[in-house]
Structures are given as C-alpha cells and as structure tokens.
Write a structure and sequence with these properties.
4 strands; 6 helices; single chain
Length: 113
C-alpha cells in the first residue's frame, strides 16, 4: 500500500490538475466522472485523468489517501478539492473558477463570467 500511496502522491504533486475517475476523460465510465470531465472541459483547463478501474489497489488507495469515500476525486496543485457534488457546486457558484485563477491556472474567459 505504501507503493500506491507514493504513486498517488507523485501524481497529485506533479500535475496541476488531476482527476481520479472511473474511466478516462474521453470515455468516462460513470455519470459523476463524466460531469467533472465536462466541467473541466468547459473551463478549458488541461488535466490528467487517471482511471481507477484499471487497478483495484489504486481505487482503494485514493480513497484512503484523501479520506474521501467516493470517486471521482479532483486535485488542484496538490490539494484535494472534492468529488462530483462539491466540484459542481463550486462551479455553479463560480468558486471553482476563482480557485483555479488564484492558484495560477487560466480558465476559459467565457466560463469565468
């Protein structure tokens, strides 16, 4: 499990935006993962999608890493942001866009209005 924790830690710290999800950004395998992919796509931010369905140890490991029971899980600049409901709510309130700008990630200006 230490190996999976260091793998997760490395992904979270070496990518500005990481989404641990079911499926891939091109082919989400659950509606919640799909919603977060759509939001990130709308904002025009590059992100790394990591498919947890390929690896049961990773799927369990990410939940332990964040102490969060569900997927998807979004990380921005090494910090856990939340799952689908939190990301959607933050997006609707413009908080996600503001947070991304605060940490130096440019968002699609149409989405920032």
């Amino acid at each position: 499990m230490a190996d999976i924790k260091s793998l997760i830690d490395n992904e979270v710290k070496s990518n500005d935006i990481v989404l641990f999800m079911k499926g891939t950004p091109d082919f989400p395998m659950c509606g919640f993962s799909g919603q977060v992919v759509q939001i990130l796509g709308y904002l025009g931010v590059p992100f790394k999608g990591i498919n947890v369905l390929d690896n049961a140890e990773l799927r369990d490991g990410i939940k332990a890493y964040s102490n969060w029971p569900t997927l998807p899980q979004l990380y921005v600049k090494g910090e856990f942001v939340g799952g689908c409901d939190i990301v959607r709510e933050m997006f609707q309130k413009q908080e996600l866009q503001a947070h991304l700008k605060e940490v130096g990630i440019a968002v699609n200006e149409a989405a920032a209005e």
